[in-house]
Write a structure and sequence with these properties.
Elements (H helix, E strand, L loop, with lengths): L3 H12 L27 H12 L16 E3 L5 H9 L10 H17 L9 H30 L1 E2 L5 E2 L21 H18 L21 H8 L9 H16 L8 H18 L16 H5 L10 E4 L3 E3 L1 H6 L10 E3 L1 H6 L27 H5 E2 L4 E2 L4 E2 L24 E2 L17 E3 L2 E4 H16 L11 H12 L8 H6 L3 H15 L6 H7 L8 E7 L2 E8 L14 H6 L11
Antiparallel strand pairs: 1-6, 2-3, 4-12, 5-11, 7-10, 8-9, 13-14
Helix pairs in contact: 1-2, 2-4, 2-5, 4-5, 5-6, 5-7, 5-8, 6-8, 8-9, 8-14, 9-14, 14-15, 14-17, 15-17
Subcellular location: Cell outer membrane
Organism: Chitinophaga japonensis
Protein name: Putative outer membrane starch-binding protein
Length: 588
């Protein structure tokens, strides 16, 4: 997101006085002490809106994968580790969005209540355009935060009803009635859609400088200068109509999924069509980014990014920054890292052979004595296996139990617990050696296009079968074929496994879910996916012990979940304070 618009404004508007930071300046956009706020001043209301941006949760880097069968951690204080081991309660919920999202919604409701009272610029036309944009941002962000609340807290109450969360559409002051009941899940989803559709109606598809001939008719008779002043490239990274459409697809997938949907084709078709709308804006199936597997390490591409600009794989992202935090946490010990996130044998087994066949298939060519040979190329891109290389000097890493370095299995506190280290997300050109340490540029995606492709594949298969297209120009089969071809899977033999799967919705479902697991691993999706699929949460985390060259699978960590944990809890203190709130079944 544009550093001037978000980072500096969020800090300066809210925390201190400053000069105008926007060029051209919003004439009436100056800091005001909140205690003396008057709606004729624009700076404080806009600062309130920016609170919504600062509360956007980022899936990547949270590593909730540690709470699943995909990863463990050697950090014994990790909240997701404790959660996986049975310490997940309604008063200890690392995944809760209640406080964060409702705080954001409160700020956004204040913004919507005040926006029409403010003169945003001396030019009346520009002032109206700013009001339009800010309304669109606020509605879009509010819909997004309601989606996050549903993902974390919707569920089946003791009454048997599928409930969402309380819907708050007005600012709450000290005299407000906070004892609100939960709306139904369906009512909440409809509100999410309504807010996002309103955002689409008010906002441009993207923030770019355009000519007079390109001005959308919805903004009336204005000049290109006026349009660009409000909707131009300086505001890249703020909420757009494109982002709203993508979040609608995400919400529709949640609503259609087994834990929340009725399983009817209409709900799945909605999710597929919403995703297709986003993809078609990008160019359809042909827009699958060639470097979608390495977006985080494409050094030249990342170095050349302008503020707020997105590379082909990214629909929406946060600011980039120069640091080495991820590598410090996750490089193996011999590269001066802490080896925190350890992929499991479970995940490694999910990667097929390069010929596309699962390793369990007798025809796959899998060799247990050489388990990493001939595999899906994504395996060694995402997971640092024994004998793999890492770091700026392509150092060979030995994770064997009898290995001579601290990279060996369970050798020291920072060693791997599974026989594997994380490789995905890490810049291998980072050097952690204290004598020559360096930083590299990183950014975190809010939404990747590969996620939208996978939403389409999952929903289209459920709605129309593997090769059905509805009213769209591509099928679930087409998407999965493109994704596997990009990865180098089945590209030399016609991918017989995929070809067999296209004859069965059930077989394609399994394949789509596995591709989602692989493509989005370590980006914070696995736990939510298992829950919305009503899949097994208790799969034990496994690892590998290599000794004298022999590989043996070992148990590493149990997963302790109850059946009712398909749905997250309403926070205990909220339930204690407000009697109108029903708790989800099974939670205290």
């Amino acid at each position: 997101m544009n550093k001037v618009i978000l980072t500096l404004l969020a800090a300066v508007f809210i925390l201190s006085g400053c000069k105008d930071l926007i060029d051209p300046a919003m004439e009436n956009n100056r800091q005001l002490d909140p205690d003396a706020y008057h709606p004729s001043d624009a700076r404080f209301p806009y600062g309130i809106l920016l609170n919504g941006y600062t509360r956007i949760p980022t899936n990547s880097w949270s590593f909730s994968d540690v709470a699943t069968d995909d990863a463990v951690t050697n950090d014994q204080t990790n909240v997701f580790l404790k959660m996986a081991l049975g310490q997940w309660t309604s008063s200890n919920d690392p995944l809760s969005q209640w406080t964060n999202s409702y705080a954001a919604i409160q700020y956004l409701n204040i913004t919507l209540a005040e926006v029409d009272k403010v003169r945003w610029a001396a030019d009346e036309a520009i002032s109206k355009l700013f009001a339009t944009r800010i309304k669109g941002e606020a509605y879009g962000l509010r819909g997004m935060f309601l989606y996050y609340l549903l993902q974390a807290h919707a569920g089946v109450a003791e009454s048997g009803s599928l409930l969402g969360v309380p819907i708050l559409l007005e600012p709450q002051d000290a005299n407000a009635d906070f004892n609100k009941p939960r709306a139904t899940f369906e009512e909440c989803i409809k509100q999410v859609y309504k807010d996002l559709d309103t955002a689409v109606a008010l906002l441009p598809l993207d923030y770019e400088n355009i000519s007079a001939a390109q001005i959308p008719p919805k903004y009336g008779s204005i000049t290109a200068e006026q349009y660009n002043r409000v909707f131009g490239a300086a505001f890249r990274g703020l909420f757009t109509a494109r982002i709203a459409k993508a979040i609608k697809a995400k919400a529709a997938l949640l609503a259609a999924s087994p834990a929340y949907g009725t399983g009817n084709g209409a709900a799945w078709a909605n999710a597929a069509n919403y995703a297709a709308e986003v993809l078609n804006l990008k160019g359809g199936l042909g827009a699958l980014a060639a470097n979608g597997l390495t977006w985080y390490s494409s050094a030249a591409e990342i170095a050349g990014l302008a503020d707020g600009a997105n590379p082909p794989e990214i629909l929406w992202r946060n600011n980039y920054g120069d640091n080495r935090d991820l590598e410090q946490a996750n490089f193996p010990p011999t590269l001066f890292g802490n080896g925190r996130i350890n992929p499991t044998q479970n995940l490694v087994n999910a990667f097929p052979m390069a010929n596309g066949l699962p390793i369990s298939d007798p025809a796959s060519g899998y060799d247990p004595a050489a388990p990493y040979a001939g595999r899906d190329p994504r395996l060694k891109l995402f997971v640092l296996v024994n004998g793999g290389t890492a770091g700026p000097n392509n150092t060979v890493i030995n994770t064997a139990a009898d290995g001579p370095t601290n990279d060996a299995l369970n050798k020291v506190e920072t060693s791997t617990r599974t026989g594997y280290y994380l490789r995905k997300l890490l810049r291998q050109d980072v050097n952690l050696n204290p004598t020559s340490a360096n930083n590299q540029r990183h950014y975190k995606p809010h939404i990747r296009y590969t996620e939208i492709f996978l939403i389409y594949a999952e929903a289209a298969n459920e709605a129309w079968g593997p090769t059905g297209r509805g009213e769209n120009s591509f099928s679930a089969y087409d998407v999965i074929k493109a994704i596997r071809n990009r990865a180098g899977v089945g590209s030399t033999n016609g991918d017989p496994y995929l070809e067999a799967a296209k004859a069965s919705k059930e077989a394609m479902r399994d394949l789509v879910r596995n591709e989602r697991r692989l493509e989005l691993c370590f980006e914070g999706f696995r736990f939510w996916d298992l829950r919305r699929w009503k899949a097994r949460l208790n799969e034990p985390a496994m690892g590998v012990r290599i000794r004298n060259g022999n590989h043996s699978v070992i148990p590493v960590e149990d997963r302790v979940y109850q059946d009712y944990m398909t749905y997250g809890p309403i926070p205990y203190m909220e339930k204690l304070k407000y009697g109108a709130l029903q708790q989800n079944r099974g939670w205290q």
